[in-house]
Write a structure and sequence with these properties.
The protein is an alpha+beta fold. It is built from six helices and four strands. Helix content is about 50%, strand content about 10%. Helix 1 crosses helix 2 and helix 3 packs parallel to helix 4.
């Protein structure tokens, strides 16, 4: 086997591994979390794996309602934001409504998901072809007419909006 053939074979193997990794991350939320932030999602933080597994069951329709309660700075908002991004990557015609006790916090979560997760290169490795447009409290993915993500604080306007996930 000559050098060019070896290089071609290595390239094909790398591409195959990349496709396999993409498929795993598209279908396993915890693997997606580790892909997005391997320094945060470590073996020492077993609670994050348990929460990711519960979110996975929500995505699969096995759990209809889930409440996550942890001490401050334990990662509940971050993992929830990653879950929102993952779901929108899996179901780009779906939508998510995320509410908070304060409009500023709701907008921060929206910005984190839109500008920190979905537009990142790591996200695009797993969900290529996903683009966002719109304001921080109400944005779309690709060319959908329904908002993909919208948020509000307590007392904020959510009346008239609906959300759904298309599986």
């Amino acid at each position: 086997m000559n050098r060019k053939d070896k290089e071609r074979m290595l390239l094909l193997l790398r591409e195959k591994k990349k496709r396999e990794h993409r498929h795993i991350c598209q279908n396993n939320f915890y693997e997606f979390c580790k892909h997005m932030d391997s320094k945060f999602f470590t073996d020492g933080k077993k609670h994050l794996k348990l929460i990711a597994e519960a979110f996975q069951e929500v995505a699969e329709g096995k759990i209809n309602k889930l409440a996550v309660s942890m001490p401050p700075r334990a990662g509940k908002s971050y993992i929830t934001s990653l879950f929102c991004g993952w779901m929108l990557g899996k179901y780009p015609k779906g939508s998510i409504m995320r509410n908070s006790y304060a409009a500023k916090l709701a907008e921060k979560f929206s910005k984190d998901i839109r500008d920190g997760i979905i537009v990142s290169d790591k996200f695009k490795e797993i969900f290529p072809g996903i683009n966002v447009k719109g304001s921080i409290d109400n944005w779309n993915i690709n060319d959908t007419t329904q908002p993909a993500y919208f948020c509000a604080g307590v007392g904020g306007p959510i009346t008239g909006f609906g959300c759904k996930t298309i599986a």
